[in-house]
Design goal:
heterodimer; A: alpha/beta; 10 helices; 19 strands; 24% helix; B: alpha/beta; 7-stranded antiparallel beta sheet
Chain lengths: 346, 1020
């Protein structure tokens, strides 16, 4: 094990031990407060271009399992841990080329990111190879997350069938979709086809319903994708999730903005306005849709009052900012996906 | 949904005396609830028989009833107070069972009292095995396959191995694990007896499966959150109260954890808990992932106290708010203030709880862990890794070296069988780090300076010095419930190593560090926590910042609302000095936490921090027998003759000089640990073999009456607050003896001499604060047995009986006030108060249930009334041993007691009792003209004839009076007492206790409940 470090764009350095791949990884430093689901987290395409700090005290305790992958490969670029809890997890990271540090003062890192906002950063596995000053210079040369369109990098290149049998037939537009979304739809009885991010509105309108998936990066530069959603509105029932929700927001003339440090975790309370009930949700987003005076807001965050969902009944379109598919996280919002399938069927 | 406006007054039921399975966590819960309910503007009424609780302090509720927690006691309160609602979910199983009884007896309906927090049908659904099984199955889940058994005949065809669980008992009491059919029959027979409804469940054994608990909250809008997950390191088969546990769970993947979470949410809905917290236990097969629901508590529990301390989420407080109508999203998170309670805490640290056992107190008792809880307390450790938390908790148990306990060390062979390999490997990793000798890494892994010193061939203080030279010092982190995601001004801190320090103290208010009493054990429990909490309150009121250090998650003192800063840390020199280094206090308060802080006093003074109030010197003077002997001589205070011996031959020689009987004990003890009375050389040899180091030998004053005196001293003047007379004669530990205030047999002359003695001792010792003196009077001669310059176990009882808060006064004295300035009222209680002890013998089959010089009670009750017999009878009721008023009394007393047994027997005969006695006792009583049925001793029975044990077993005996022989015939007495214990027949083991009991039976009057506020004449 070599001595490695994380350097943030403000110059602060967090030292640790390298437990995974050798090398240097650049990205946006973010933290997630989920206490389980490390493998699901780094394979979630929404973490593309990010260095993930786990607030959980121990990470890797229960090993790895292929069934937990949310996509074909990891998308986060680095894992920052206070304490590595298992060798299997470290090997998994190493084999997939992720830089991972243990022994990091994660709580100080979290408090910094909370107060100063998510930052560009680099994680270096061996201090002898790259010094902090050198790494910092390169960090400052990296683009910020704001303005980055990352969807094209993680979307499926070709349309594929996830579940052939079933009804209705639902298309999932893959902006970086988590497998759990497809699994929930299929387990609700739907046939599921995954379509690339560039699929046209006409093609999508052929399906019984369309799910706009989660995905990484800033929604604003996704002009083409937004245009497709705009064209699709009213033609077919739509459910947006996370980035999909933001695209629905942009398509319905809302604006998006970058949150200071985002919402990432599995314990976020969200108020369902219609029923007054609270859902404990899984979240992973760095951007949000601006609130408006409109009546379309269905869910609101009980943490910071940000918009957590829309409903446009006349357009048969709705969306949630959180992750109803869970994986990782609580299942309180599973009925949103199940209910969507059920409604399409009837 | 806002607070309900249709109710104005609420009655909260406490959990009564501390017993195994039900400790001070319910004082913590009750205090939080009362505080919240008062803030919400409700009129509050509390009923609890335990005087050592904070919740029964006169300022905590509008009306405080220290009354027996039985149907009659609570009904009497409800009749008098007519509250709108009764909240029974914060007083453990005791309060829940009482709620059902009150409902069934029609009391609630009669007085128009609404049950809030849990409805009767919900309680039944959670507690009745069959109803619970149906509820669980309705969620598509499984309980272990089982049959409900109401008689031994139902056992046919039931497979073994199996677990026997009686319905409606505390801490799984009366249950057990059965590998074979004979054991199964044995456990079922006992379980049927223990269960108040005569029902036990015999279920499929899931022994060896992993065990998890989830703490769940639900509000009336059907919002459900999981506050905490807890994983047991000891797998299924060991009661969760006896298991080492960790939070959050460590070994489950997200999908496996979410399955548990879904199950917990479904179950709380199916059972129908509408407002409040529940604890749900699961067994999970490590191999197949199969899940079984083990049990549910539809109330605040021991685990919820642990979960509250582990997460910073105040479950009892939130549960109380939910009970009066709020929903989770309307209640702010206590720590962040800006976010709501409708979230799930996320932890960036690990919490481990270790149970604390007291097997050394019950020689002969079976020490195997099973489904019956046997531990008496617990300690919790917080760390940034599992090993750090584990090591902190392990070291917080404060065990004597070599004490018999599960988990004696963390060596691989000492870990329980079936422990999850992840835990085993993490512990191995910590051991490797220790062996490597790298100080920084070893500290990070959680090893204490002392253990590290052992590995490095140094002392703990030397390690400390070396690491200080290297700049290796602990840092402190906040518990904030949200892993740093939301800004929180939390004052709840723990130490760790190798990272940044957080939230250092600011401001220029003077600070005091108050040291708590650590894990509950026999001889040191809730009474000392009561004192620490009051100390914090008083110092805060005096303008100081109160800083609390403690490691017991059950307590009120570890509620972060109590102090300005709470350090959840082990009570050892290393951690306490680290807190002092950070806080730079004006002084450290050591006189309220029992023996634990006293042991630290020297290290604290050597570390450069003054002790506030009584200095360590006074403690040393009082506890060092030679120094104290000289002082007593100087003052003209009489002590029984004594000597110190370091081995058997010295002891035998000293005994010749002093004379028998002798009281033999190691120096520096609390709770009479290893204390013995020896009547001859043979017994002395045995006693000496059982102890290490210097031993104190005191002439044991026979036939004496003992008195406990609680007093205050400001270094100059002395205030005598309470002179309490023991009901049992000298030789029974003061903690186990019932005591009475005011002392009934105190003559004016004796009272004056006691006053004289105490007034000389206090200033001579240099006491600044509380002082406890134990005195024996025999043949009008006053002997000082013991002086303790610290808070005693009786301080809460005495404070409540006389209406003066002694801890508050002691803190003011420690802060510089004089007694003259305090101008405390001369205590003149108009009521008689009795304190009675509660003993855990039923938990320790094999140990002799007899009172002696070694303390074995776990808790106490208080009862007050207009006269002594009424108070005494009420106290016995409160202790769960109601005295019979008619029936058959059995007597068997040792020769010395025979003359005194005559009036006792005569009084019983006069009350209409049938008398039965064994040969010797029968002869004496007949000679006195009494009519006696003679019965065979067990030892003399040669088969066929009925013995006294049969009599007791068959329910044909209502009172047992059996005083143990000094030697010989012990087996017989033991069998009688054990039979009485099993049959729940009151068993009195001292002749003075018997006389008091008979007096109470003869003269107790019916008195209605009276509040503490009325008794001591204060209004709040």
């Amino acid at each position: 094990m070599t001595a490695g470090f994380l350097v943030l764009e403000d110059g602060s350095v967090f030292r640790g031990r390298s437990v995974a791949a050798d090398g240097v990884a650049f990205g946006e430093a973010v933290f997630t407060t989920g206490m389980t689901g490390y493998q699901e987290t780094v394979t979630d395409p929404s973490y593309a271009g990010q260095l993930v700090c786990f607030t959980a005290a121990m990470v890797g305790n229960y090993g790895v399992d292929e069934t937990r992958d949310e996509s074909r490969e990891p998308h986060a670029r680095g894992a920052l841990m206070r304490s590595l809890g298992g060798a299997e997890w470290a090997s998994w990271l190493r084999e997939r080329g992720l830089v991972g540090l243990d022994g990091i003062d994660t709580r100080s890192l979290v408090l910094k990111l909370r107060d100063a906002g998510a930052m560009r950063a680099a994680v270096v596995s061996d201090e002898r190879e790259v010094a902090p000053a050198e790494a910092l210079e390169q960090v400052l040369a990296q683009p910020a997350m704001e303005g980055q369109a990352l969807v094209a990098r993680v979307s499926a290149p070709e349309r594929y069938v996830f579940a052939a049998e079933g009804s209705p037939h639902v298309a999932v537009v893959d902006y970086g979709a988590k497998r759990s979304i497809m699994r929930r739809l299929a387990s609700a009885g739907a046939a599921v086809t995954v379509c690339p991010h560039s699929t046209s509105a006409d093609e999508l309108a052929e399906f019984d319903g369309v799910v706009l998936s989660n995905g990484p990066g800033d929604p604003e530069p996704l002009v083409d994708e937004t245009q497709v959603v705009r064209e699709l509105l009213g033609r077919v029932p739509i459910l947006g999730i996370c980035l999909g929700h933001q695209l629905l927001g942009l398509a319905s003339e809302h604006r998006t903005y970058k949150l200071p440090f985002g919402h990432r975790g599995a314990n976020h309370p969200v108020l369902e306005r219609q029923t007054g009930r609270v859902l404990v949700t899984s979240q992973n987003h760095g951007f949000a849709v601006e609130a408006t005076e409109g009546s379309e807001e269905t869910y609101v965050s009980l943490y910071d009052g940000t918009v957590e969902g829309f409903d446009f009944p006349e357009l048969r379109a709705r969306s949630v900012q959180f992750h109803p598919e869970a994986g990782p996280g609580p299942h309180d919002a599973w009925p949103i996906l199940g209910g969507f399938v059920e409604e399409l069927r009837s | 949904m806002p607070r309900r406006i249709d109710i104005e007054s609420i009655c909260v039921i406490g959990s009564g005396p501390i017993v195994i399975g039900q400790a001070c966590e319910f004082d913590y819960a009750g205090c939080q609830a009362l505080k919240v309910l008062r803030e919400e503007g409700f009129r509050t009424i509390v009923v609890n028989s335990n005087p050592a609780t904070i919740m029964t302090d006169p300022g905590f509720a509008d009306r405080t009833y220290i009354e027996p927690l039985d149907l009659e006691g609570v009904a009497s309160v409800l009749e008098r107070e007519r509250p709108d609602a009764l909240l029974p979910t914060l007083g453990g199983q005791t309060a829940l069972n009482l709620a059902i009884e009150l409902a069934e007896a029609g009391v609630l309906e009669e007085h128009g009292v609404e049950l809030i927090g849990a409805q009767v049908d919900v309680i039944r659904r959670a507690e009745d095995r069959e109803l619970f099984r149906d509820a669980v199955r309705s969620c598509g889940l499984e309980v272990p396959s089982s049959v409900i058994v109401t008689s031994l005949d139902d056992l046919e065809g039931v497979p073994v191995p199996a677990v026997v669980r009686p319905a409606f008992t505390l801490g799984g009491h009366g249950g057990g694990f059965a590998e074979d059919r004979a054991t199964l029959a044995f456990h079922v027979e006992r379980g049927l007896w223990e269960s108040p409804i005569g029902q036990v469940l015999v279920e499929q054994s899931v022994r060896g499966w992993d065990e998890f608990e989830l703490e769940v909250m639900r509000d009336r809008a059907d919002n459900v959150v999981i506050v905490c997950s807890i994983e047991n390191l000891d797998p299924m088969g060991v009661h969760t109260g006896d298991s080492v546990t960790v939070a959050p769970q460590m070994t489950l993947s997200d999908e496996a954890y979410q399955e548990l979470r879904d199950a917990a949410c479904a179950i709380i809905r199916a059972v129908g808990v509408e407002t409040g917290g529940s604890n749900i236990q699961f067994a999970r097969s490590r191999e197949t992932g199969e899940l079984r629901v083990i049990e549910m508590n539809p109330r605040v529990s021991r685990s919820s106290a642990l979960a509250s301390k582990a997460t910073g989420y105040p479950i009892a407080k939130v549960a109380a708010k939910l009970a009066v109508g709020y929903t989770l999203d309307e209640i702010p998170n206590d720590l962040t203030k800006t976010t709501p309670a409708s979230f799930e805490p996320t932890l960036d640290y690990v919490v481990v709880k270790f149970p604390r056992f007291a097997f050394e107190k019950f020689p002969g008792a079976d020490q195997t862990l099973g489904t019956q809880m046997k531990s008496v307390g617990e300690a919790m450790g917080i760390g940034r890794t599992f090993s750090e938390a584990l090591l902190k908790a392990h070291g917080s148990r404060e065990l004597e070296k070599g004490a018999a306990t599960p988990w004696p060390s963390l060596a691989d062979e000492d870990l329980p069988d079936g422990i999850h390999p992840w835990f085993r490997s993490e512990i191995a990793r910590a051991r490797e780090i220790l062996a490597s000798g790298d100080i920084a890494e070893a500290k990070r892994a959680g090893w204490g300076d002392d253990t590290l010193g052992e590995a490095l061939g140094m002392t703990g203080p030397e390690v400390r010095q070396r690491r200080h030279e290297q700049g290796i010092r602990p840092v402190f982190r906040r518990v904030d419930s949200c892993a740093g995601e939301v800004e929180a001004a939390s004052n709840y801190l723990y130490s760790t190593w190798g990272e940044a320090d957080e939230a250092p103290p600011v401001g220029d208010k003077p600070r005091v560090v108050i040291l708590g009493s650590g894990p509950n054990r026999i001889g040191q429990g809730i009474e000392f926590d009561y004192c620490c909490v009051h100390a914090a309150q008083t110092f805060r009121a005096l303008g100081y910042e109160a800083v609390m250090v403690n490691c017991n998650p059950e307590t009120v003192s570890t509620d972060y609302d109590i102090s300005d800063r709470l350090y959840f840390e082990p009570l050892s020199p290393e951690e306490v000095l680290a807190v002092c280094d950070r806080e730079q206090p004006l002084g450290v308060v050591t006189q309220f936490g029992g023996q634990t802080p006293l042991r630290l006093a020297r290290a604290i003074e050597e570390g450069g921090y003054p002790i506030l109030g009584t200095p360590h010197e006074a403690i040393d003077l009082a506890e060092d027998r030679e120094r104290f002997g000289l002082l007593a001589q100087e003052l003209g205070v009489r002590c029984p003759p004594w000597a110190i011996a370091s081995d058997v031959s010295e002891a035998l020689a000293a005994a010749e000089e002093i004379g028998y009987p002798l009281l033999v004990r190691p120096s520096y003890v609390l709770g009479g640990r290893a204390m013995r009375i020896c009547y001859d050389t043979e017994q002395l040899e045995v006693a000496m073999a059982a102890v290490d180091g210097d031993v104190l030998l005191d002439r044991f004053v026979e036939n004496a009456i003992e008195f406990d005196i609680d007093a205050l001293c400001d270094g100059k003047d002395v205030y005598i607050a309470a002179v309490m007379q023991h009901v049992e004669e000298a030789g029974v530990h003061s903690g186990d003896s019932a005591c009475v205030l005011p002392a009934p047999s105190l003559t004016l002359a004796a009272a004056l001499e006691i006053e004289h003695v105490v007034k000389r001792l206090g200033p001579a010792l240099g006491v600044v604060g509380l002082l406890n003196v134990q005195i024996a009077i025999a043949d009008s001669t006053v002997y000082v047995l013991e002086v303790n310059p610290r808070a005693s176990r009786t301080v809460p009882f005495a404070s409540k009986a006389i209406g003066v808060n002694l801890v508050d006064a002691a803190c003011r004295i420690a802060a510089g006030s004089s007694l003259a300035e305090l101008d405390l009222p001369v205590p003149r209680p108009t009521q008689v108060s009795v304190k009675a002890a509660v003993l855990p013998f039923a938990r320790f089959p094999g140990a002799d249930p007899v009172l002696g010089p070694e303390m074995r009670s776990t808790g106490e009750v208080m009862a007050s009334a207009g006269d002594l017999p009424t108070a005494l009878a009420k106290a016995e009721r409160a202790a769960g041993r109601p005295l019979p008023t008619s029936g058959t009394a059995f007597l068997s007393v040792r020769d010395e007691d025979k003359p005194a047994a005559v009036p006792v027997a005569a009084a019983l005969a006069g009350l209409g009792f049938e008398l039965v006695a064994t040969e010797g006792t029968a002869r004496t009583l007949r000679a006195a003209g009494l009519s006696i049925d003679e019965i065979t001793k067990v030892a003399d029975a040669d088969g066929g004839e009925e013995t006294v044990v049969d009599l007791v077993r068959h329910g044909r005996c209502d009172l047992v009076i059996n005083t143990p022989q000094g030697s010989g015939a012990r087996a017989d007495g033991y069998l009688i007492r054990e039979a009485a214990l099993v049959a729940r027949v009151p068993c009195v083991t001292t002749i003075s206790g018997a006389a008091a009991a008979v007096h109470a039976i003869a003269n107790a009057r019916a008195e209605s409940a009276l509040s503490l506020q009325e008794r001591i004449g204060i209004e709040v």
